Amino acid sequence: MRIGDVSFWYADIGLPYRRAALAGDRTADVAIIGAGYTGLWTAYYLKQAMPSLDVLVIEKDFAGFGASGRNGGWLTGGFAWNHARYLETSTEHGVRAMVEAMNGTVDEVIRVAGAEGIDADIQRTDELLVATKPAQVGRMQAEIAHRRHWGEDGRVFEMSARDLSDRIRIPGALGAMVVTNVARIQPAKLVRGLARTVERLGVRIVEGTTVTGYEPGVVSTDHGTVQAPVILRCTEGFTADLPGRKREWLPMNSAQIATEPLPQAIWDRIGWQGHEILGDFANAYCYCQRTREGRITVGARGVPYRYGSSLDINGAPDPETIRRLTAILHRHFPAARSAKIDHAWCGVLGVPRDWCATVGLDPVTGLGWAGGYVGVGVSTSNLAGRTLADLTLARDTDLVHLPWVNRRVRDWEPEPFRWLGVHGMYALLNAADRREDRPGAGPSKLAALGNWLSGRH
Ligand SMILES: Cc1cc2nc3c(=O)[nH]c(=O)nc-3n(C[C@H](O)[C@H](O)[C@H](O)COP(=O)(O)OP(=O)(O)OC[C@H]3O[C@@H](n4cnc5c(N)ncnc54)[C@H](O)[C@@H]3O)c2cc1C
């Protein structure tokens, strides 16, 4: 089994060639820190709107090194967490407009991939979130009602266990929430394709160049300084490594495994012909995909958070995390029990204190940011990129009035409270799942306590 090496997605396509580092001091109209989806989508829409703009993307490793090259490949257009949180700074109408804009990201990503010739193994499909315990059924129905209330009634519905088994056979499934109009992707192919596309449009990407600090008008790196009137921070889960940003977004770890390609005989037992993206309603939920070449990937939180917001380097999960992911694989897909695990890896995503994504730009300082997508960044980063482009160009579009724009959220607590809060939350969520596994058990109150502890609900 390969462990780390950034992700399976790069084992699939090969690690990219390295672009040159910044060659000393220079200027740009817009400097973007971080070459993941957020930075690259922003660069893309800026160049679409104004081809003459001098856009420079500064990347410490290589384009797609972060979560954008490691994720589960769920392109969902959904909200990360509780829609109602945005009511604190908006109206019901504003939140519904954002739901609609989010949903639209699926079509937009697929449109651009098609127009720019980006092959990312994109397959339009449904999202299936399966309930396997009575307590999970209650959670599923509440989630369906919640999403429908916020305007997703046209694309979210409940599916019976019987209908589900026509699509995929999950032992003990009692039903599923279906979300239509989503897609499965190969994440590293998307980010690699985006990087090539923006370069073709004239954006400069410098790699192996670490930003060590920034202030209005100037970005400092280990290879020189960049003077730019607009500086956009697109570093999501890595943000805590930037000076003064330690407590802004918690770097949350998520890990995955990929099996070897499964033979047809196993697929015949599992079903899953529609390549739906598949997850569950456990409190410590999982996310899975069937890859282009017939592997199963399973993802879930590993070691959820490292003390002091420290980051791993190469995406290597610990043995206990790999064991837990393998147990999920065997539970949901017993037919794949004999399959070899080819790869295990992990990465970081950004979690704001209120678990709600934000995007913004201060017109006075020229400093902007986007992120905190809480695990739903594949689609949200596209909306963020379009919005950051509009903010940068001072365009008064509908996007710049959505409730997540220029939303300020308080920092996370200092250590050891941050570590205790997150680890406490996951210990409670896991304990709640164990309780809900007991025959006849209802929803465990431990999950509610865990979510409250971390501010998730
Ligand atoms: C394991 C995992 C599974 C996930 N699964 C899904 C999923 O299925 N669906 C979904 O919607 N979302 C998922 N996510 C979340 C999603 O992948 C991210 O939210 C999204 O990719 C964030 O994109 P980004 O460009 O903002 O950040 P990143 O892709 O993390 O890019 C940030 C970039 O900034 C660079 N950088 C950092 N610091 C510096 C510095 N000082 N100087 C220069 N460059 C710097 C990094 O090297 C990196 O390339 C998952 C995340 C993880 C980790």
Structure in words:
With 457 residues, the chain is of the alpha/beta class. The protein has 2 domains: 2-412, FAD/NAD(P)-binding domain, CATH 3.50.50; 413-457. It is built from 11 helices and 20 strands. It has helices at 8-13, 37-49, 92-116, 134-152, 161-167, 187-200, 264-270, 319-332, 377-392, 417-436, 445-454; strands at residues 2-3, 26-27, 30-33, 55-58, 74-75, 123-131, 156-160, 175-184, 204-206, 211-215, 218-221, 224-227, 230-233, 249-259, 277-280, 287-290, 296-300, 341-352, 358-362, 367-371. Strands 1, 5, 6, 7, 8, 14, 15, 16, 17 and 18 form a 10-stranded mixed β-sheet that branches. A hairpin with a 2-residue loop joins β11 (218-221) and β12 (224-227). α2 runs parallel beside α6, α2 runs parallel beside α9 (377-392) and α10 packs antiparallel against α11. The radius of gyration is 21 Å and the shape is globular. Flavin-adenine dinucleotide binds at residues 33-39, 58-61, 65-68, 70-74, 210-211, 234-238, 241-242, 254, 256, 287, 299, 346-349, 371, 373, 375-379, 381.
